[in-house]
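Same chain as my last thread, 139 residues:
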Amino acid sequence: MLQPKRTKYRKAHKGRIHGKAKGGFTLAFGAYGLKATSPGRLSARQIEAARRTITRHMKRLGKLWIRVFPDVPVSQKPAEVRQGKGKGTPEWWAARVKPGRIMFELDGVSKQTAVEAFTLAAAKLPVGTKVVVRLGEEG
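reply #2:
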């Protein structure tokens, strides 16, 4: 699963995800993309599940780009522990996703295959999505 090799700080603030994506909102590599329409946090497990779904559906033809990376540590305290005594330990890694962000890109497959693969992958993700197509790739 994806996670940073090293970080400057071990724990991060939760923060709020508001506003639109100010980068990564256009197709850069492939002809088809899966774009977020709502804000949220994607865990490394969810990104990996979506990646597996896409690659399995396209039978490893074409090329897939993952445009999000889980770089935010999410901490949790153990079950049935009293309040206080500091923040919990980092348990998993998340990627903050704003509306408009392209999360995955595909190329080298037909439009129908790409749309089906992205539809299956979207079911694994906790954010609203839509499939985008590069101009001139309508066929």
